[in-house]
Design goal:
Elements (H helix, E strand, L loop, with lengths): L3 E4 L6 E4 L1 H10 L8 H9 L8 E4 L6 E4 L9 E2 L1 H4 L19 H11 L2 E2 L3 E2 L10 E2 L5 E4 L5 E10 L2 E10 L5 E7 L2 E4 L8 E7 L5 E7 L5 E4 L2 E2 L2 H10 L5 H15 L3 E3 L3 E2 L6 E11 L1 E18 L3 E10 L3 E10 L2 E4 L2 E10 L2 E11 L8 E4 L2 E2 L2 H17 L2 E2 L5 E2 L19 H4 L4 H6 L37 E2 L13 E2 L3 H10 L8 H10 L7 E4 L8 E4 L8 E3 L1 H8 L1
Parallel strand pairs: 5-6, 7-8, 9-10, 10-11, 11-12, 13-14, 14-15, 15-16, 18-35, 19-20, 20-21, 21-22, 22-23, 23-24, 23-25, 24-25, 25-26, 26-27
Antiparallel strand pairs: 1-2, 3-4, 16-17, 27-28, 29-30, 31-32, 33-34
Length: 572
Protein backbone atom coordinates (compact mmCIF):
# COMPACT_ATOMS: atom_id res chain seq x y z
CA UNK A 1 0.00 0.00 0.00
CA UNK A 2 1.04 3.63 -0.47
CA UNK A 3 1.66 6.14 2.31
CA UNK A 4 -1.47 7.33 4.12
CA UNK A 5 -2.06 10.37 6.33
CA UNK A 6 -4.63 10.00 9.11
CA UNK A 7 -5.99 12.22 11.87
CA UNK A 8 -5.34 11.00 15.40
CA UNK A 9 -8.59 10.23 17.21
CA UNK A 10 -7.04 11.53 20.42
CA UNK A 11 -5.00 14.68 19.71
CA UNK A 12 -6.57 15.49 16.32
CA UNK A 13 -3.14 15.90 14.69
CA UNK A 14 -2.04 14.34 11.42
CA UNK A 15 0.15 11.25 11.46
CA UNK A 16 1.56 9.20 8.61
CA UNK A 17 1.38 5.46 8.01
CA UNK A 18 4.20 4.27 5.77
CA UNK A 19 4.06 1.32 3.33
CA UNK A 20 6.28 -0.79 5.59
CA UNK A 21 3.84 -0.14 8.45
CA UNK A 22 1.04 -1.65 6.39
CA UNK A 23 3.28 -4.65 5.70
CA UNK A 24 3.73 -5.15 9.43
CA UNK A 25 -0.01 -4.80 10.12
CA UNK A 26 -0.70 -7.40 7.45
CA UNK A 27 1.81 -9.77 9.03
CA UNK A 28 0.17 -9.30 12.45
CA UNK A 29 -3.38 -9.37 11.01
CA UNK A 30 -4.31 -6.10 12.71
CA UNK A 31 -5.98 -2.94 11.39
CA UNK A 32 -4.04 0.30 10.99
CA UNK A 33 -4.16 2.49 14.12
CA UNK A 34 -6.44 5.48 14.53
CA UNK A 35 -4.07 7.22 16.99
CA UNK A 36 -0.60 8.66 16.48
CA UNK A 37 2.25 6.74 18.08
CA UNK A 38 2.67 9.22 20.95
CA UNK A 39 -1.00 9.03 21.95
CA UNK A 40 -0.79 5.24 21.76
CA UNK A 41 2.28 5.34 23.99
CA UNK A 42 0.68 7.67 26.54
CA UNK A 43 -2.35 5.36 26.61
CA UNK A 44 -0.16 2.35 27.44
CA UNK A 45 2.01 4.18 29.98
CA UNK A 46 -1.12 5.20 31.87
CA UNK A 47 -1.36 1.54 32.91
CA UNK A 48 2.15 1.41 34.45
CA UNK A 49 2.80 2.68 37.98
CA UNK A 50 6.36 2.41 39.23
CA UNK A 51 6.88 5.01 41.93
CA UNK A 52 3.58 5.55 43.74
CA UNK A 53 3.55 3.17 46.73
CA UNK A 54 0.89 2.82 49.40
CA UNK A 55 -0.13 0.75 52.36
CA UNK A 56 -3.31 -1.27 51.94
CA UNK A 57 -4.80 -4.50 53.24
CA UNK A 58 -3.91 -7.84 51.74
CA UNK A 59 -7.19 -9.32 50.46
CA UNK A 60 -6.47 -12.72 52.04
CA UNK A 61 -4.90 -12.06 55.45
CA UNK A 62 -6.09 -8.51 56.07
CA UNK A 63 -2.52 -7.53 56.96
CA UNK A 64 -0.96 -4.28 55.80
CA UNK A 65 1.13 -4.64 52.65
CA UNK A 66 3.18 -2.24 50.56
CA UNK A 67 1.42 -1.94 47.23
CA UNK A 68 1.35 0.03 44.02
CA UNK A 69 -2.45 0.07 44.39
CA UNK A 70 -3.85 2.60 46.83
CA UNK A 71 -6.44 1.51 49.37
CA UNK A 72 -9.26 3.25 47.50
CA UNK A 73 -8.80 1.07 44.40
CA UNK A 74 -11.58 -1.59 44.36
CA UNK A 75 -9.18 -4.41 43.49
CA UNK A 76 -8.34 -7.80 44.92
CA UNK A 77 -4.69 -7.48 45.97
CA UNK A 78 -2.53 -10.32 47.27
CA UNK A 79 0.89 -10.33 48.86
CA UNK A 80 3.46 -11.26 46.25
CA UNK A 81 4.36 -14.69 47.61
CA UNK A 82 0.68 -15.66 47.85
CA UNK A 83 -0.11 -14.35 44.37
CA UNK A 84 2.67 -16.43 42.87
CA UNK A 85 1.63 -19.56 44.81
CA UNK A 86 -0.80 -22.28 43.77
CA UNK A 87 -3.20 -21.41 46.57
CA UNK A 88 -5.65 -19.66 44.26
CA UNK A 89 -7.00 -20.33 40.77
CA UNK A 90 -7.12 -17.49 38.21
CA UNK A 91 -9.77 -19.40 36.27
CA UNK A 92 -12.19 -18.99 39.17
CA UNK A 93 -12.80 -15.40 38.04
CA UNK A 94 -13.62 -16.49 34.47
CA UNK A 95 -16.91 -15.82 32.76
CA UNK A 96 -18.42 -16.72 29.42
CA UNK A 97 -18.36 -14.05 26.71
CA UNK A 98 -21.48 -11.87 26.54
CA UNK A 99 -22.22 -10.72 22.98
CA UNK A 100 -24.78 -8.22 24.26
CA UNK A 101 -22.06 -6.01 25.84
CA UNK A 102 -18.80 -4.44 24.61
CA UNK A 103 -15.64 -6.44 25.17
CA UNK A 104 -13.86 -3.72 27.16
CA UNK A 105 -16.80 -3.43 29.55
CA UNK A 106 -16.52 -7.15 30.29
CA UNK A 107 -12.75 -6.91 30.64
CA UNK A 108 -13.09 -4.11 33.21
CA UNK A 109 -15.17 -6.45 35.38
CA UNK A 110 -12.53 -9.16 35.01
CA UNK A 111 -9.88 -6.71 36.25
CA UNK A 112 -11.93 -6.13 39.39
CA UNK A 113 -12.54 -9.85 40.02
CA UNK A 114 -9.06 -11.20 39.44
CA UNK A 115 -6.32 -10.82 42.09
CA UNK A 116 -3.26 -8.63 41.50
CA UNK A 117 0.16 -8.87 43.18
CA UNK A 118 0.78 -5.96 45.52
CA UNK A 119 4.12 -5.23 43.84
CA UNK A 120 6.33 -6.55 41.09
CA UNK A 121 9.43 -7.00 43.24
CA UNK A 122 10.91 -10.41 42.52
CA UNK A 123 13.68 -12.10 44.57
CA UNK A 124 14.12 -9.05 46.77
CA UNK A 125 16.38 -9.15 49.83
CA UNK A 126 15.73 -6.38 52.36
CA UNK A 127 14.30 -4.27 49.52
CA UNK A 128 10.61 -4.00 50.34
CA UNK A 129 10.07 -0.50 48.95
CA UNK A 130 10.95 -1.30 45.33
CA UNK A 131 8.72 -1.95 42.33
CA UNK A 132 9.07 -3.34 38.81
CA UNK A 133 12.35 -4.86 39.95
CA UNK A 134 14.09 -8.16 40.54
CA UNK A 135 17.07 -9.48 42.52
CA UNK A 136 17.90 -6.34 44.50
CA UNK A 137 19.59 -6.46 47.91
CA UNK A 138 19.48 -3.75 50.57
CA UNK A 139 17.80 -1.30 48.18
CA UNK A 140 15.26 1.41 48.92
CA UNK A 141 12.95 3.17 46.47
CA UNK A 142 14.49 1.57 43.41
CA UNK A 143 12.12 1.31 40.43
CA UNK A 144 12.64 -0.69 37.26
CA UNK A 145 16.20 -1.56 38.31
CA UNK A 146 17.59 -5.06 38.75
CA UNK A 147 20.55 -6.84 40.35
CA UNK A 148 21.61 -3.90 42.53
CA UNK A 149 23.00 -3.78 46.05
CA UNK A 150 22.90 -0.96 48.59
CA UNK A 151 21.24 1.52 46.22
CA UNK A 152 18.39 3.99 46.70
CA UNK A 153 16.23 6.59 44.94
CA UNK A 154 17.04 5.23 41.48
CA UNK A 155 15.26 4.16 38.31
CA UNK A 156 16.52 1.69 35.70
CA UNK A 157 19.81 1.08 37.47
CA UNK A 158 21.34 -2.34 36.88
CA UNK A 159 24.20 -4.31 38.44
CA UNK A 160 25.21 -1.29 40.52
CA UNK A 161 26.35 -0.92 44.12
CA UNK A 162 26.48 1.74 46.82
CA UNK A 163 24.88 4.40 44.64
CA UNK A 164 22.04 6.92 44.95
CA UNK A 165 19.80 8.96 42.67
CA UNK A 166 20.50 7.32 39.34
CA UNK A 167 18.56 7.11 36.10
CA UNK A 168 19.51 4.42 33.60
CA UNK A 169 22.94 3.56 34.98
CA UNK A 170 24.62 0.20 34.50
CA UNK A 171 27.48 -1.56 36.32
CA UNK A 172 28.54 1.40 38.45
CA UNK A 173 29.63 1.89 42.05
CA UNK A 174 29.72 4.81 44.49
CA UNK A 175 27.88 7.03 42.00
CA UNK A 176 25.40 9.85 42.61
CA UNK A 177 23.00 11.81 40.42
CA UNK A 178 24.08 10.16 37.16
CA UNK A 179 22.02 9.66 34.02
CA UNK A 180 22.49 7.30 31.05
CA UNK A 181 25.93 6.16 32.17
CA UNK A 182 27.85 2.91 32.52
CA UNK A 183 30.93 1.40 34.19
CA UNK A 184 31.62 4.38 36.44
CA UNK A 185 33.07 4.65 39.93
CA UNK A 186 32.75 7.72 42.14
CA UNK A 187 31.19 9.77 39.35
CA UNK A 188 28.60 12.42 40.32
CA UNK A 189 26.16 14.70 38.46
CA UNK A 190 27.07 13.27 35.04
CA UNK A 191 25.26 12.15 31.89
CA UNK A 192 26.18 9.89 28.96
CA UNK A 193 29.45 9.00 30.66
CA UNK A 194 31.24 5.65 30.46
CA UNK A 195 34.27 3.95 31.99
CA UNK A 196 35.14 6.93 34.19
CA UNK A 197 36.44 7.43 37.70
CA UNK A 198 36.50 10.05 40.46
CA UNK A 199 34.84 12.82 38.45
CA UNK A 200 31.83 15.11 38.56
CA UNK A 201 29.71 17.13 36.15
CA UNK A 202 30.62 15.28 32.97
CA UNK A 203 28.63 15.13 29.74
CA UNK A 204 29.42 12.59 27.04
CA UNK A 205 32.82 11.64 28.44
CA UNK A 206 34.57 8.29 28.08
CA UNK A 207 37.47 6.88 30.10
CA UNK A 208 38.03 10.03 32.11
CA UNK A 209 39.31 10.28 35.66
CA UNK A 210 39.68 13.20 38.02
CA UNK A 211 37.78 15.50 35.66
CA UNK A 212 35.33 18.22 36.60
CA UNK A 213 32.80 20.11 34.49
CA UNK A 214 33.87 18.59 31.17
CA UNK A 215 32.05 17.88 27.90
CA UNK A 216 32.99 15.46 25.11
CA UNK A 217 36.33 14.27 26.50
CA UNK A 218 37.99 10.94 25.73
CA UNK A 219 40.81 9.35 27.75
CA UNK A 220 41.60 12.45 29.83
CA UNK A 221 42.68 13.14 33.41
CA UNK A 222 42.82 16.20 35.66
CA UNK A 223 40.66 18.47 33.50
CA UNK A 224 38.34 21.29 34.55
CA UNK A 225 36.00 22.72 31.92
CA UNK A 226 38.00 20.77 29.31
CA UNK A 227 41.27 22.42 30.31
CA UNK A 228 44.11 20.15 31.45
CA UNK A 229 45.95 20.75 34.75
CA UNK A 230 48.79 19.19 36.68
CA UNK A 231 47.50 17.01 39.50
CA UNK A 232 48.39 19.47 42.25
CA UNK A 233 46.83 22.42 40.45
CA UNK A 234 43.72 20.38 39.66
CA UNK A 235 43.22 19.53 43.34
CA UNK A 236 43.75 23.15 44.33
CA UNK A 237 41.25 24.47 41.76
CA UNK A 238 38.70 21.82 42.69
CA UNK A 239 38.92 22.67 46.39
CA UNK A 240 38.14 26.30 45.63
CA UNK A 241 34.72 25.31 44.25
CA UNK A 242 33.70 23.96 47.70
CA UNK A 243 31.63 21.12 46.26
CA UNK A 244 31.11 19.68 49.74
CA UNK A 245 28.72 22.60 50.37
CA UNK A 246 25.30 23.01 48.84
CA UNK A 247 26.01 26.64 47.96
CA UNK A 248 29.28 25.73 46.23
CA UNK A 249 27.66 22.83 44.40
CA UNK A 250 24.77 25.01 43.17
CA UNK A 251 27.15 27.69 41.90
CA UNK A 252 29.22 25.11 40.03
CA UNK A 253 26.09 23.59 38.50
CA UNK A 254 25.25 26.95 36.94
CA UNK A 255 28.78 27.34 35.56
CA UNK A 256 28.56 23.86 34.07
CA UNK A 257 25.21 24.54 32.40
CA UNK A 258 26.66 27.66 30.80
CA UNK A 259 29.76 25.75 29.66
CA UNK A 260 27.64 23.02 28.07
CA UNK A 261 26.14 25.59 25.70
CA UNK A 262 29.60 26.46 24.36
CA UNK A 263 30.41 22.92 23.27
CA UNK A 264 28.93 20.99 20.31
CA UNK A 265 26.53 18.13 20.96
CA UNK A 266 26.13 14.98 18.92
CA UNK A 267 22.77 15.01 17.11
CA UNK A 268 21.79 11.71 18.75
CA UNK A 269 23.18 9.07 21.06
CA UNK A 270 23.24 6.25 18.50
CA UNK A 271 26.09 3.77 19.01
CA UNK A 272 27.01 0.63 17.03
CA UNK A 273 23.68 0.88 15.27
CA UNK A 274 22.65 0.56 11.61
CA UNK A 275 19.83 2.34 9.75
CA UNK A 276 18.10 3.74 12.83
CA UNK A 277 16.65 7.03 14.09
CA UNK A 278 15.83 8.23 17.57
CA UNK A 279 17.90 8.75 20.69
CA UNK A 280 19.79 6.48 23.09
CA UNK A 281 20.02 3.54 20.69
CA UNK A 282 22.84 1.04 21.23
CA UNK A 283 23.64 -2.11 19.25
CA UNK A 284 20.51 -2.10 17.11
CA UNK A 285 19.53 -2.48 13.47
CA UNK A 286 16.64 -1.06 11.44
CA UNK A 287 14.96 0.75 14.34
CA UNK A 288 13.04 3.89 13.42
CA UNK A 289 11.78 6.56 15.81
CA UNK A 290 13.05 4.61 18.81
CA UNK A 291 14.17 5.80 22.25
CA UNK A 292 16.18 3.95 24.88
CA UNK A 293 16.69 0.85 22.77
CA UNK A 294 19.57 -1.48 23.57
CA UNK A 295 21.34 -4.75 22.84
CA UNK A 296 20.44 -6.44 19.60
CA UNK A 297 17.07 -4.92 18.81
CA UNK A 298 16.14 -5.34 15.16
CA UNK A 299 13.33 -4.21 12.87
CA UNK A 300 11.52 -1.95 15.33
CA UNK A 301 9.56 1.26 15.10
CA UNK A 302 8.05 3.63 17.67
CA UNK A 303 9.71 1.86 20.61
CA UNK A 304 10.51 3.05 24.12
CA UNK A 305 12.78 1.14 26.54
CA UNK A 306 13.08 -1.96 24.42
CA UNK A 307 15.77 -4.35 23.23
CA UNK A 308 17.72 -7.32 24.53
CA UNK A 309 16.99 -9.42 21.49
CA UNK A 310 13.67 -7.82 20.50
CA UNK A 311 12.73 -8.50 16.87
CA UNK A 312 9.92 -7.18 14.65
CA UNK A 313 8.06 -4.87 17.01
CA UNK A 314 6.03 -1.69 16.64
CA UNK A 315 4.37 0.62 19.13
CA UNK A 316 5.81 -1.16 22.14
CA UNK A 317 7.45 -0.13 25.40
CA UNK A 318 9.37 -1.95 28.14
CA UNK A 319 9.64 -4.96 25.84
CA UNK A 320 12.35 -7.37 24.77
CA UNK A 321 14.38 -10.24 26.18
CA UNK A 322 14.18 -12.31 23.00
CA UNK A 323 10.60 -11.37 22.19
CA UNK A 324 9.34 -11.00 18.63
CA UNK A 325 6.28 -9.86 16.75
CA UNK A 326 5.09 -7.48 19.46
CA UNK A 327 2.52 -4.80 18.66
CA UNK A 328 0.91 -2.07 20.77
CA UNK A 329 1.92 -3.76 24.01
CA UNK A 330 3.86 -2.98 27.17
CA UNK A 331 6.04 -5.00 29.53
CA UNK A 332 6.74 -8.03 27.31
CA UNK A 333 9.58 -10.52 27.87
CA UNK A 334 10.43 -13.86 26.30
CA UNK A 335 7.27 -13.90 24.21
CA UNK A 336 6.07 -14.03 20.61
CA UNK A 337 3.03 -12.71 18.74
CA UNK A 338 1.79 -10.40 21.48
CA UNK A 339 -0.87 -7.81 20.72
CA UNK A 340 -2.62 -5.13 22.83
CA UNK A 341 -1.34 -6.62 26.09
CA UNK A 342 0.46 -5.61 29.28
CA UNK A 343 2.96 -7.49 31.46
CA UNK A 344 3.31 -10.68 29.44
CA UNK A 345 6.23 -12.96 30.32
CA UNK A 346 6.90 -16.16 28.38
CA UNK A 347 3.80 -16.24 26.21
CA UNK A 348 2.74 -17.06 22.66
CA UNK A 349 -0.26 -15.73 20.73
CA UNK A 350 -1.55 -13.46 23.50
CA UNK A 351 -4.27 -10.88 22.79
CA UNK A 352 -5.76 -8.19 25.04
CA UNK A 353 -4.40 -9.67 28.26
CA UNK A 354 -2.88 -8.35 31.49
CA UNK A 355 -0.27 -9.74 33.86
CA UNK A 356 -0.02 -13.24 32.42
CA UNK A 357 3.12 -15.33 32.96
CA UNK A 358 4.82 -18.70 32.65
CA UNK A 359 4.17 -20.05 29.19
CA UNK A 360 0.61 -19.03 28.42
CA UNK A 361 -0.48 -19.72 24.84
CA UNK A 362 -3.51 -18.72 22.80
CA UNK A 363 -5.34 -16.56 25.32
CA UNK A 364 -7.65 -13.62 24.63
CA UNK A 365 -8.83 -11.05 27.18
CA UNK A 366 -7.30 -12.70 30.24
CA UNK A 367 -5.86 -11.48 33.56
CA UNK A 368 -3.36 -13.15 35.88
CA UNK A 369 -3.06 -16.50 34.09
CA UNK A 370 -0.06 -18.81 34.40
CA UNK A 371 0.70 -21.75 32.13
CA UNK A 372 -2.73 -21.80 30.47
CA UNK A 373 -3.94 -22.04 26.91
CA UNK A 374 -7.16 -21.53 24.97
CA UNK A 375 -8.71 -19.18 27.52
CA UNK A 376 -11.03 -16.20 26.98
CA UNK A 377 -11.92 -13.87 29.86
CA UNK A 378 -10.21 -16.41 32.17
CA UNK A 379 -12.55 -19.19 31.07
CA UNK A 380 -11.10 -22.43 29.73
CA UNK A 381 -12.10 -23.64 26.24
CA UNK A 382 -11.05 -26.45 23.99
CA UNK A 383 -8.79 -25.64 21.05
CA UNK A 384 -11.70 -25.94 18.63
CA UNK A 385 -14.01 -23.78 20.76
CA UNK A 386 -11.32 -21.11 21.19
CA UNK A 387 -10.49 -20.90 17.50
CA UNK A 388 -14.16 -20.60 16.61
CA UNK A 389 -14.95 -17.99 19.28
CA UNK A 390 -12.04 -15.54 18.81
CA UNK A 391 -13.05 -14.41 15.28
CA UNK A 392 -16.58 -13.85 16.52
CA UNK A 393 -15.30 -11.68 19.38
CA UNK A 394 -13.12 -9.63 17.02
CA UNK A 395 -16.12 -9.07 14.77
CA UNK A 396 -18.22 -8.15 17.80
CA UNK A 397 -15.59 -5.64 19.02
CA UNK A 398 -15.93 -3.81 15.70
CA UNK A 399 -19.71 -3.96 15.59
CA UNK A 400 -20.34 -3.14 19.27
CA UNK A 401 -17.52 -0.75 20.06
CA UNK A 402 -16.68 0.64 23.47
CA UNK A 403 -17.19 4.40 23.81
CA UNK A 404 -15.36 6.15 26.64
CA UNK A 405 -16.58 9.15 28.63
CA UNK A 406 -14.96 11.51 26.10
CA UNK A 407 -16.83 9.89 23.22
CA UNK A 408 -13.76 8.10 21.80
CA UNK A 409 -14.45 4.81 20.06
CA UNK A 410 -12.42 1.68 20.86
CA UNK A 411 -12.52 -1.24 18.46
CA UNK A 412 -10.36 -4.25 17.76
CA UNK A 413 -6.85 -2.91 17.16
CA UNK A 414 -6.98 -0.29 19.92
CA UNK A 415 -5.20 -0.67 23.24
CA UNK A 416 -7.37 -0.69 26.36
CA UNK A 417 -9.22 2.55 27.14
CA UNK A 418 -7.45 4.50 29.88
CA UNK A 419 -10.65 4.24 31.94
CA UNK A 420 -9.70 0.62 32.59
CA UNK A 421 -6.35 1.50 34.14
CA UNK A 422 -6.08 0.71 37.87
CA UNK A 423 -4.08 3.94 38.23
CA UNK A 424 -4.82 7.63 37.95
CA UNK A 425 -2.80 9.45 35.32
CA UNK A 426 -0.48 11.12 37.82
CA UNK A 427 0.26 7.79 39.51
CA UNK A 428 1.46 6.33 36.23
CA UNK A 429 4.67 6.97 34.32
CA UNK A 430 2.61 8.63 31.58
CA UNK A 431 2.95 11.72 33.77
CA UNK A 432 6.75 11.47 33.46
CA UNK A 433 6.85 11.38 29.66
CA UNK A 434 3.73 13.41 28.88
CA UNK A 435 3.17 15.62 31.95
CA UNK A 436 -0.29 17.10 32.44
CA UNK A 437 -1.91 19.32 35.02
CA UNK A 438 -4.95 18.02 36.87
CA UNK A 439 -7.16 20.17 34.64
CA UNK A 440 -5.51 18.99 31.41
CA UNK A 441 -5.75 15.36 32.52
CA UNK A 442 -9.47 15.72 33.22
CA UNK A 443 -9.99 17.36 29.84
CA UNK A 444 -8.22 14.43 28.19
CA UNK A 445 -10.43 11.95 30.03
CA UNK A 446 -7.89 10.68 32.57
CA UNK A 447 -8.55 10.16 36.28
CA UNK A 448 -6.41 12.21 38.66
CA UNK A 449 -5.42 11.32 42.21
CA UNK A 450 -5.54 14.19 44.64
CA UNK A 451 -2.66 14.22 47.17
CA UNK A 452 -3.51 12.42 50.36
CA UNK A 453 -3.26 14.52 53.56
CA UNK A 454 0.23 14.02 54.93
CA UNK A 455 0.00 15.92 58.21
CA UNK A 456 3.76 16.13 58.52
CA UNK A 457 5.33 17.64 61.59
CA UNK A 458 8.41 19.19 60.01
CA UNK A 459 11.60 18.75 62.01
CA UNK A 460 13.82 20.88 59.77
CA UNK A 461 12.93 23.75 57.46
CA UNK A 462 14.80 23.71 54.18
CA UNK A 463 16.69 26.93 55.00
CA UNK A 464 17.95 25.36 58.23
CA UNK A 465 19.79 22.46 56.62
CA UNK A 466 23.57 22.69 57.08
CA UNK A 467 25.36 23.95 53.98
CA UNK A 468 28.40 21.72 54.51
CA UNK A 469 28.13 17.96 54.92
CA UNK A 470 30.74 18.20 57.68
CA UNK A 471 28.28 20.16 59.81
CA UNK A 472 25.52 17.51 59.60
CA UNK A 473 25.01 15.67 62.88
CA UNK A 474 23.93 12.04 63.35
CA UNK A 475 20.58 13.05 64.82
CA UNK A 476 19.33 14.17 61.39
CA UNK A 477 18.52 10.53 60.59
CA UNK A 478 14.77 10.02 60.60
CA UNK A 479 13.90 13.69 60.95
CA UNK A 480 11.24 15.15 58.67
CA UNK A 481 12.94 17.61 56.29
CA UNK A 482 10.99 20.09 54.22
CA UNK A 483 11.24 19.66 50.44
CA UNK A 484 12.39 22.81 48.69
CA UNK A 485 9.40 22.60 46.29
CA UNK A 486 6.95 22.46 49.24
CA UNK A 487 4.40 20.63 47.09
CA UNK A 488 4.11 23.56 44.67
CA UNK A 489 5.32 21.62 41.61
CA UNK A 490 3.82 19.02 39.29
CA UNK A 491 6.37 16.36 40.19
CA UNK A 492 4.51 14.19 42.72
CA UNK A 493 6.26 16.13 45.47
CA UNK A 494 5.97 14.46 48.87
CA UNK A 495 6.52 17.87 50.53
CA UNK A 496 9.05 16.39 52.95
CA UNK A 497 11.62 13.60 53.14
CA UNK A 498 13.93 11.78 55.52
CA UNK A 499 17.60 10.85 55.42
CA UNK A 500 18.24 7.16 56.07
CA UNK A 501 21.35 5.95 57.88
CA UNK A 502 23.25 4.41 54.92
CA UNK A 503 22.43 7.50 52.87
CA UNK A 504 24.07 9.82 55.39
CA UNK A 505 27.12 7.54 55.51
CA UNK A 506 27.30 7.76 51.70
CA UNK A 507 27.18 11.58 51.64
CA UNK A 508 29.91 11.75 54.26
CA UNK A 509 32.12 9.24 52.49
CA UNK A 510 31.68 10.98 49.12
CA UNK A 511 31.91 14.46 50.72
CA UNK A 512 28.57 15.55 49.22
CA UNK A 513 26.05 17.99 50.74
CA UNK A 514 22.54 16.92 51.69
CA UNK A 515 19.86 17.20 48.96
CA UNK A 516 17.15 19.84 49.21
CA UNK A 517 14.44 18.03 47.24
CA UNK A 518 12.39 14.95 48.07
CA UNK A 519 13.17 11.78 46.06
CA UNK A 520 10.27 12.31 43.64
CA UNK A 521 11.29 15.86 42.80
CA UNK A 522 14.90 14.75 42.35
CA UNK A 523 13.68 12.06 39.95
CA UNK A 524 11.79 14.61 37.87
CA UNK A 525 14.84 16.89 37.77
CA UNK A 526 16.79 14.03 36.21
CA UNK A 527 14.05 13.42 33.67
CA UNK A 528 14.21 17.07 32.62
CA UNK A 529 17.83 16.58 31.58
CA UNK A 530 16.85 13.92 29.03
CA UNK A 531 15.57 14.74 25.57
CA UNK A 532 11.87 14.42 24.64
CA UNK A 533 10.38 11.53 22.70
CA UNK A 534 10.20 13.49 19.49
CA UNK A 535 12.37 14.05 16.41
CA UNK A 536 12.96 17.19 14.35
CA UNK A 537 14.85 17.61 11.08
CA UNK A 538 17.80 19.93 11.56
CA UNK A 539 20.97 21.00 9.77
CA UNK A 540 24.44 20.46 11.21
CA UNK A 541 25.71 23.65 12.87
CA UNK A 542 29.38 22.99 12.11
CA UNK A 543 30.67 25.71 9.76
CA UNK A 544 30.31 24.67 6.13
CA UNK A 545 28.68 21.29 6.79
CA UNK A 546 25.57 20.62 4.63
CA UNK A 547 24.41 17.49 6.50
CA UNK A 548 20.87 17.21 7.85
CA UNK A 549 19.55 14.68 10.34
CA UNK A 550 16.67 13.76 12.62
CA UNK A 551 17.34 14.75 16.21
CA UNK A 552 15.54 14.98 19.53
CA UNK A 553 17.01 18.48 20.03
CA UNK A 554 14.24 20.90 19.09
CA UNK A 555 15.26 23.70 16.67
CA UNK A 556 14.71 26.41 19.29
CA UNK A 557 17.03 24.83 21.86
CA UNK A 558 20.26 26.70 22.62
CA UNK A 559 22.68 23.76 22.27
CA UNK A 560 25.07 23.58 19.30
CA UNK A 561 24.17 20.41 17.38
CA UNK A 562 26.60 18.62 15.06
CA UNK A 563 26.20 15.64 12.77
CA UNK A 564 28.09 12.47 13.67
CA UNK A 565 31.09 13.17 11.44
CA UNK A 566 31.61 16.73 12.63
CA UNK A 567 31.12 15.77 16.24
CA UNK A 568 33.75 13.01 16.09
CA UNK A 569 36.28 15.54 14.82
CA UNK A 570 35.70 17.51 18.01
CA UNK A 571 36.03 14.67 20.54
CA UNK A 572 38.63 12.28 19.05
Amino acid sequence: MSQETKICQNCQKDFVIEPDDFDFYEKMKVPAPNKCWQCQLANRLAFRNERALYKRKDSVSGQDVISMYSADKPLVVYKQDYWWSDKWDPLSSGRGYDFSRPFFEQFRELILRTPWPALVNINAVNSDYCNSTMSNKNCYLVFGGDFNEDCAYSTFNFYSKDSYDLYWVNKSEFCYEDIDSENCNKVFFSQNTRDSLSSAFLLDCVNCQNCLGCVGLRNKSFCIFNQSYAKEEYEKQKAEFRLETFSGLSAFQKKFRDFILTRPHRYAEIVKTVNSTGHNIHNAKNCQNCFDVYQDAENGKDLLICGWGLRDARNADHAGHNSELVYNSSGVAGSSRIQFSFYIFSGLDIYYSFNCHNNNRNIFGCVGLRNKQYCILNKQYSKEEYEALVPRIIKHMNEMSYIDKKGRVYKYGDFFPSELSPFCYNESIAQEYFPLSAEAAAKAGYDWKQPEPRNYQLSIKIEDLPDNIKDVKDDIIGKVIECQHKGQCNEQCTEAFRIIEPELAFYRRMNLPLPRLCPNCRHYQRLKQRNPLKLWTRKCQAPGCPNTFETSYAPDRPEIIYCEQCYLKEVV
